[in-house]
Amino acid sequence: MVSPSARSFTSLALLIVPFLISCDAFAPQTTPSLRVATPSTSSRLASSKTDETSFVDTLTNGWELFQKSKSEGYDFKQSVTIAIAGEYDAADIQSKIKEEIESAPCVMFTWEASPACKKAIKYLDIAGASYKIVRLDDPWSEGNPIRAELGKMVGRSSVPCIFMGGKYVGGFDGGVGEDSPGILEMAFKGTLRDTLKEVGAL
Description:
The protein has helices at 4-22, 39-71, 76-85, 90-101, 115-127, 140-154, 183-189, 192-199, and strands at residues 106-110, 132-135, 161-164, 167-170. It has 202 residues and is an alpha+beta fold. α3 runs antiparallel to α6 (140-154). α5 links the parallel β1 (106-110) and β2. It has a 4-stranded mixed sheet.
């Protein structure tokens, strides 16, 4: 019988490994067809061993961060987000987030390929809003810690993460409460344009 801890590790590995591959966290090694003991071959083999160790270390550190986050009360999705972000200076990231949020009346943290982010941009364009986009996927190494801290800050790690007048209003079609339902619900309620006008983004 598989233990719950082993199942959690397997789930986390299945989420992290494809992500690391897509982000070029490690590069596939080319194995020469003829193994001749030359200095260049020796260093290539040593490099391959270092890459394997680095990958195992990345997975181990991610697992430890995931377990720590779960023990601190974060849900599965936020814990995975923290694990993917790796080690970072939380105070420095929080300062960057604050600076970005205060840099424009409407600020949207996004992934370029995210369907929800594309819809949010489309709806804000239809509303005639001016907004600032902060991409969390360019590069991933800088965006992942920002996403992890945003999740801790607002209680939701999904993108887009939208702020108006320095206040979190949710994502595209969801948020964390009545004050932050997401811009789709704000549009249905008739409060989106009013809020955009109020903060100076319209």
